[in-house]
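A quick aside before the break. I want you to see a complete sequence-to-structure record at least once, exactly as it would be stored in a machine-readable document. Don't worry about memorizing anything.
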Amino acid sequence: MLMNLELFAVGLGVGALGTLIGVGGGFILVPVFLFVFHFTPQYAVGTSLAVVFANAVSGTLAYVRQKKVYYDAAIRFSLATLPGAVLGSYTAHYFTNRIFYISFGLLLMSIAGLLHWRTRHELGSAKGHGDFPVNYDRGLGISISVVVGFLSSTFGIGGGIIHVPAMIGLLGFTPHVATATSHFVLAISACIGVVSHFLLGNILLMPALIVGSGAAIGAQLGAHLSPKTKPRSISRLLCVALFVLGLKMILS
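That is the input. The structure line, written in tokens, reads:
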């Protein structure tokens, strides 16, 4: 019972934080599963990805209703993530603990840099929705999506932390369109990754359900708190924490 309450609290916190700063919680969940609950890397990745999938579906439905998803890019990028999503689940299945810790540590440090970029460019940008970009580099977008699908499934993270900055900085999407389109892509990619991880026995279903339910409530809490907080300050603190955690994982 105590562990279930702790898992629910983790989901609540991750859901609220993710909503406040506009990122998925996979890169937070995996270290928590590893260091606090002592999951194996395979269970940490598979269970985290299951939670990411549930959140991505929820977010995608909201964005579809708001008509913010750019389907021309969303469908192309979704299809491009599928091979990497399957390959990533099998890659994660054969990780040794040491190799996983080093790889994930390097990823966390990279995410800290990307999150810092988002803090400077997205959170301070105009809030208008903007038009869908008619001319964008489809080949580059597809190539990035292949990598995103692989990393998402390999490490159990949401690909939005990589996809959104790439769509804005390299493809010319507005922040709102990039975020909505990335959610759509992640929902498809994570679905395939979750199925692959499930077939490999990498998902702990009960923890995934408990954390997922906590995250759903936390997301609503984050949305309520958002007008009363400073996302830029929270994001900067998270950047530092992720960089230090990544270094700890590499050196441990």
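Two observations worth writing down. The longest helix spans residues 41-65. Residues 3 and 60 are 30 Å apart (CA to CA). We'll return to this after the break.
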